[in-house]
Amino acid sequence: MSGCPSEAESPVEALHAAARKSMAAIPHKMLVMSGKGGVGKTTVAVNLAFAFGRHGLRVGILDTDLHGPDVAFMTGVEGVPGASDGARLRPIEAGGAPDLRVRVLSISAFLPGRDSPVIWRGPRKASAIAQLLGEADWDGVDVLVVDCPPGTGDEPLSVAQLVPGAAAVIVTSPQEVALLDSRKCVNFARALDLRVLGIVENLAGFVCPDCGRRIDLFKMGGGERAAREMKVPFLGRIPITEAMVEAGDSGKPLVVHHPDDPAAKALAAIAGSIEADWRARERADGPADTRGKEDVMQGVKVIAVAAEDELGLEGQVSGHFGRCPAYVLVETKGADVVGSRVVRNPHYGNHQPGQMPTFIHGLGAHAILAGGMGPRAVDMFHEFNMEVATGAVGKVRNVVAAYLRGEIKGIVPCAHDHPESCGDPHDHEPGDRGAQRP
Q1: What is the β-pairing status of strands 28-33 and 143-147?
Q2: Cβ atoms within 10 A of the Cβ of 286, count?
Q3: Domain limits of the chain?
Q4: Which helix (H) or strand (E) holds 228?
Q5: How far is 180 from 182, CA to CA, in rounded Å?
Q6: How far does the chain reach from its first CA to its final CA, in angstroms?
Q7: Which CATH class is domain 293-422?
């Protein structure tokens, strides 16, 4: 006897299986969530997606906020009808710049009109999300940014269950009520085994377009405090600016059309931190022939040096590891320098506590040399198993040579006066106090 035949796969199961298979082919999946509405979640999702695109990644944006789909409007493709190619839905190419590769898919493209409501119960919404995930042409996408509706209901639950390997970015504003709900989002993610990339504090002060003064309309620092209490990364804070409001209303992403705006710079810095986290995990989790590539390739060690310029080995070491325009990544083998390259600091002038160690680790560095660094940053580098030496001054080439000879090592007192950068208050002035000279 052959036994009882297995039950045929139901249409719902087939839909879910197709969604999981499609998502498994995308290297990075990021859910953008918020505990409540009105905190600018979609603005953050759209601009992070375009920031990734500006960095050369191929990006998809999926709008799963079925009752309030605004992604198409904010990306300038509102009114473009949805289309399919055979059995596959075709995401809409969003413009903005010739080299951007951003595709958008939203339920709004399949509605009769902008004002048409979606009146569906849970099972219908779950099926629609599974279709958007599994039947859309996401081929070639490096990053899929999923804009979830506020809260922890059906839609984010469906996405979390259908997207293997997804991670979450939680957007909040500084008010206490928003922070309470953001903590619920963190616990939601943990309950579903979603890795939390971090918390973003949006609406963090209004920047006056005339005088540049910041007014803390919704307080300040709550998002960072929530991240600290929940033991998740704090990705940064984003101010309210006039350009941000206009960009959202015009369907022109801020990071593309106003890259020098303070809010755009903050968003670009957050995107850079997330990308650095991805790169670090790719090295840690990759196959044996690519994991720890610098170590495998004939014992090459990469030393990151904070630099005051982009002159490479001939440039000067910066007085602070985070407040520097560039890093020189010096490849060494034994006591010899075998190569170097310069990487611009995307967070220069706007970095948040905790961002820079993750970014520098993501560059593949095994050690960091700089003039100054606070104890909080030192601890983070040590958590990444990176060597740290501070107090160095002089030419990059000479400092690296001295470090390789063992003449520069350990931590000396920070020689600058930026408490928000160091992680601890300071009462001393910039200088070369405690400097280690080659």
Answers
A1: parallel
A2: 12
A3: 12-285, 293-422
A4: helix 222-230
A5: 6
A6: 83
A7: alpha beta
Secondary structure E strands in 269-394? 301-307, 326-333, 336-344, 367-370, 387-390
In the sheet with 336-344, reading across from the earlier edge strand, the strands are: 336-344, 326-333, 301-307, 367-370, 387-390
Q: Do domains 12-285 and 293-422 have the same CATH topology?
A: no
Residue 324 makes CB contacts below 8 A (sequence gap 6+) with 306, 307, 308, 318, 345, 348, 370
Buried b (16+ CB within 10 A) or exposed e, 235-262: bbbbbbbebbeebbeebbbbbbbbeebb
Q: How far is CA 284 from CA 108, 231, 353, 384, in A?
A: 39, 21, 24, 11
Q: What is the distance between the alpha carbons of residues 432 and 427, in angstroms, rounded to a whole number?
A: 15
Distances (CA, A) of 368 to 93, 266, 417: 41, 24, 20
Tokens 């789909």 found at: 69
CATH superfamily, domain 12-285, is P-loop containing nucleotide triphosphate hydrolases (3.40.50.300)
Question: Any residues with CB less than 8 A from the CB of 102 and at least 6 apart, and which?
Answer: 49, 50, 53, 59, 60, 61, 75, 93, 94, 96
**From CA 51, how far away is CA 269, in angstroms rounded?**
9
Token reading at 306:
């904070």
> Are 391 and 435 contacting, i.e. CB atoms less than 8 angstroms apart?
yes
**Residue 269: strand, helix, or coil:** helix
Please answer whether residues 345 and 315 qualify as being in contact, where contact means their C-beta atoms are separated by less than 8 angstroms.
Answer: no
Q: What does the pLDDT profile of the chain (438 residues) look like in tens digits?
A: 444 444 556 777 777 787 788 788 888 999 998 876 778 888 999 999 998 988 888 899 988 877 667 787 788 777 676 676 777 788 878 866 656 778 888 776 666 566 666 666 667 777 778 877 878 888 888 999 998 888 777 777 878 888 878 899 999 887 776 567 778 888 888 888 788 898 898 887 776 777 777 777 766 667 788 888 888 888 888 888 888 888 878 888 898 888 888 888 889 888 888 888 887 777 655 543 333 443 433 477 899 999 998 888 889 999 888 888 889 989 888 888 888 888 888 777 665 666 778 778 777 789 999 988 888 888 888 877 889 998 888 999 999 999 999 888 777 655 444 443 343 433 333 333 344 555
pTM of the shown model: 0.65
Question: At residue 195, what are phi and psi to the nearest 5 degrees?
Answer: -70, 135
Six token digits for residue 104: 């958008």
